[in-house]
Design goal:
Radius of gyration: 20 Å
Number of strands: 3
Mean pLDDT: 86
Distance between the termini: 32 Å
Order of helices and strands: EHHHHHHHHHEHHHHE
Structural class: mainly alpha
Length: 355
């Protein structure tokens, strides 16, 4: 049984017509990203609502179902690769040690940035603009220095750890249109090799720990802890900042401990299913809290609310949402058990210099 559907019109070697479609999609998503940044500047409240309460809640589902599509149209990826497309990049290759540093940096950035939504980013458009200015600048710098996706998309991007965790059993593979050819810019490309297989070899211990244990084990509790903290509107004190980090970090350590115990108890042949199970817990926990909050039914009134429909919904709708999230994640996990991990994208043609 195949683990993903090959979409013929997004085939391994896309025609010029299909490539133009992808380019149009890249321009569209890049334009949407720029538009959101403009909105944050001229219509702060609307920009914050559309970004944090519309786009961000949609992103995990996209990474779960079709991570390859996102890898092709991500605005930061498109921006990061602009220097390479115009022959302005130095094109340095990243070895295992360098990639280990970059990947660790991406995880660290994610764990630092996400809790700061409560005191700062969720309700301050100027700080959200500053955050994404820094991300854009970082993506461009990494793109100018390193070969293709080595620096940012497969390395220091703070979203990449989530892509690798959630995108284990994607619905479909797509052609790789960000890369004109495969230059072997990183060891074991995450786009072309099933993403739940950590780097192998004598110096692979860090990658096995990061991808195979730490992040899958830590992230579900981190998400749970994040939802236990309210947004701090107006003035905040240093004690608020402590609680901002303590709940996610303690929750993450608890689920990491649970992951480690299960890893030691279950048979070795079943261990590859453990990251898949914890990935489902993580995204299920996210939508368990997030969907009700979007419609005004969250534990902290107004936090993460897209539109207030609480008065319009009967009391049983929130338990029904919880049941729906649980059943969907259970079905996705059962599907994942029966399927092998698949790559997100078809590998493009190999560069002639590598043949």
């Amino acid at each position: 049984m195949e683990s993903a559907v090959d979409l013929d019109w997004f085939g391994k070697e896309p025609s010029q017509g299909v490539r133009k479609i992808w380019r149009a999609l890249q321009v569209l998503f890049f334009g949407l990203g720029v538009g959101l940044l403009v909105l944050l500047g001229i219509k702060p409240k609307l920009g914050l609502n559309l970004f944090w309460n519309l786009w961000i809640p949609l992103a995990p589902a996209l990474l779960l179902l079709i991570p390859g599509f996102w890898r092709n149209v991500c605005p930061l990826a498109t921006g990061s690769l602009i220097p390479r497309r115009f022959s302005l990049a130095l094109g340095l290759r990243a070895g295992r040690l360098t990639m280990g540093f970059f990947r660790g940096l991406g995880v660290l950035a994610l764990l630092i940035i996400v809790p700061l939504r409560h005191p700062f980013f969720d309700h301050d458009a100027s700080l959200t603009l500053l955050l994404f200015a820094l991300l854009i600048f970082s993506a461009l710098v990494f793109g100018m220095v390193f070969e293709w996706k080595a620096g940012w998309c497969a390395g220091a991007c703070p979203i990449h750890p989530v892509e690798r965790l959630y995108g284990k059993r994607s619905l479909a593979q797509f052609s790789n249109v960000q890369c004109d050819h495969c230059a072997s810019c990183v060891p074991r490309c995450p786009d072309s090799i099933p993403n739940d297989r950590p780097f192998r070899g004598k110096r692979s211990g860090f990658f096995q720990f990061l991808d195979g244990a730490f992040f899958p084990g830590f992230f579900p509790g981190f998400i749970w802890g994040w939802f236990q903290v309210p947004n701090f509107l107006g003035h905040w004190i240093w004690g608020d900042l402590v609680s901002t980090y303590s709940y996610p970090l303690l929750g993450g350590l608890f689920t990491l401990f649970l992951f480690s115990v299960l890893l030691a108890l279950i048979p070795q042949q079943r261990r590859p299913l453990l990251p898949l199970f914890f990935a489902n817990i993580a995204i299920g926990c996210y939508y368990w809290f997030r969907i009700p909050a979007l419609f005004g039914m969250g534990p902290y009134p107004g936090d993460g609310m897209l539109i207030n429909l609480k008065a319009s919904f009967p009391g049983w709708i929130e338990p029904l949402i919880h049941l729906g999230v649980f059943l969907l994640m259970l079905l996705w996990f059962l599907r994942g058990i029966q399927r092998k991990s698949s790559s997100w994208l078809h590998r493009p043609r190999i560069s002639s210099t590598l043949r």
